[in-house]
Amino acid sequence: MAQVKAISAWPGVLHRASELRLPILVANGAHDVMIPAYRSYVLSQQAPNAKLILYPDAGHAFLFQDIEGFARDLEQFLEG
Predict the structure, then answer these.
(1) Quick one: which of 43, 47, 52, 74 has the fewest CB in 10 Å?
(2) Phi/psi at 71 (nearest 5 deg)?
(3) What 3-state DSSP class applies to 59?
(4) How far is 41 from 44, CA to CA, in rounded Å?
(5) Burial class (CB in 10 A: 0-12, 13-18, 19+), 58
(6) Nearest to 39 by CA among 14, 74, 61, 70
(7) String of b and e for 64-76 (b: at least 16 CB within 10 Å)?
(8) Count of domains observed in the chain
(9) Structural domain of residue 68, as residue ranges?
(10) 30 Cβ contact list (under 8 Å, min separation 6)
(11) Burial of 15 by CB count in 10 Å (0-12 exposed, 13-18 middle, 19+ buried)?
(12) Model's pTM, two decimal places?
């Protein structure tokens, strides 16, 4: 819980997201309790050329909970 409080209190750098010029893949589990999916949505809206993917049956470990789906999505993103 201390880490959740720390993440929630940190002001972050979201105000600089509009400066990003490269395509960005923003991925998250829909049930992530460490970094809520809403924050990923906000980042994807602030950064130009951002693509958001939320994994509906996953949490903070979405990379491991949907390995095949993430690998496929990452490959598609990198191929452009």
Answers:
(1) 74
(2) -60, -45
(3) coil
(4) 5
(5) buried
(6) 14
(7) eebeebbeebeee
(8) 1
(9) 2-79
(10) 37, 54, 55, 56, 57, 58
(11) exposed
(12) 0.80
Check: CB of residue 26 under 8 Å from CB of residue 51.
Answer: yes
Task: Show the tokens assigned to 2.
Answer: 């201390």
Amino acid, single-letter form, for residue 11: P
Residue labelled with tokens 């949907």:
66
**Mapping DSSP to helix (H, G, I), strand (E, B) and coil, where does residue 49 land?**
coil
- Taking only the tens place, the pLDDT of each residue in 16-55 is 999 999 999 999 999 999 999 999 999 999 999 999 999 9
Q: In angstroms, what CA-CA distances link 7 with 2, 4, 23, 32?
A: 9, 5, 25, 13
